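Researcher: Good morning. I'm working through a list of sequences from a screen, and I'd like to move beyond sequence-only analysis. For each chain I'm collecting a predicted structure so we can compare shapes side by side. This is the next one on the list. No need for commentary yet; just the structure.
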Amino acid sequence: MIEINILGDLTVMTDGRDVPMRAPMVRRLLVQLLARVGQTVPAGTLCDLLWPGSKPVNARKTLQVYVRRLRQALGEDRVRHLAGGYSVRADPDELDVLRFERLISDGRGARQNGELERASALFDAAVGCWRGTPYAEIADTGLVDHEIDRLEELRYSLLEERLGVRVDLGRYAEAIAELTSLVSVYPYRESLRGLLMVSLYRSGRQSEALGVYQATLRVLDRELGVQPGPGLRSLHGRILRAELPAGPELVPGDRRPRPELPGRHWPVPRQLPAGVAGFIGRDCQLGQLEALLPNGTVMRTALLRGGAGAGKSTLAVHWAHAVAARFPDGQLHADLRDSTGDPVPPDVVLAGFLTSLGIPRALLPVNLPEAAALFRSLLADQRTLVLLDAAASEEQVRPLLPGGGGCMVLVTSRQRLDGLVAADGACPVELDPLGLLGAGAAPALARAAAG
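Model: Good morning. Structure tokens for this chain:
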């Protein structure tokens, strides 16, 4: 029985004894053939790989000498000469790379079939195959970089899937320890951070799970200038709302109790100001707003523009009350001017929104990008109406825009805010002065005034 290991330094054993193979060029030839196991490598290609610079005059003859020594070490039937090239033969039980790939495939099959304990054992065995850099003999030559990259990525997938099985089995303490270490090695892998968040949450450590997300925000923004992807944002929102399941049902033979996580009531904000009795006119603008109601896939922003006294706020509040039932997850409202008429900073507005959505003040993010990301996460799967009154600039509004397809934002402003229209897809609705309400509005106003 022969055993060849290449996931690290090259080792060859026969019946448990080391096979002496000290000649560097013979070892290099074997590694090149193993990197293409099962394939016939042309003799000319092997010469190029063995002597990447200038080849000796008798390169083909020298190659034949190396092949002969290789056969003497491995056995005549291990190295074959076919169609002007050479190949090495090895079965999955004989070569660690093939065994590594087979164990991963079998583990994935077991996981798909719900055999979690078996999947865990197979994944553990696959991890045990790995001893160091693959093809270490020639790793620094660049000749097998593509194969090394493939195996490194396969190993990363294995580590992630193995930890996913541990989470599925409820082995959270083991998973947390390994995930914490892996996150430091792969800081930009959001899938690992997501598994760590799930493990912490299901261990009753919700605040630590939220802390992992905040750390992810900082790392991605500082080093890559990006925000977490939709999957991690959605997971963060579910953890905030305590909507993540406590864990899978017990598997056969597993008698560990499922962790009990305390439930939490998340408030549904109803912040709209009181509407105006006897609202008259604005049928055209009301129709425009009605046409902008979201369809569940794309978040909509309506921008009510008009001068002072045009009735923007009154119209916005009236329409918001009329459609409130279409936004069952709540209605948020903010006056973007303070008592002195100055613009309210968006981080102040976000702090109010987040606390009204149930986030304790102690857990509020400390900077605007993190607060805006948390706000988007909370509303990612919600149908919420956000009314922003008296906006002064695009910069004041942008951090207050949710990303959920079921949400709608209604902005009122004396400014045109063309940047919000061009860059953020806001749909402008123009308000004319009161005298241009329409032909039927004046009699209606007179009747309303007369009671």
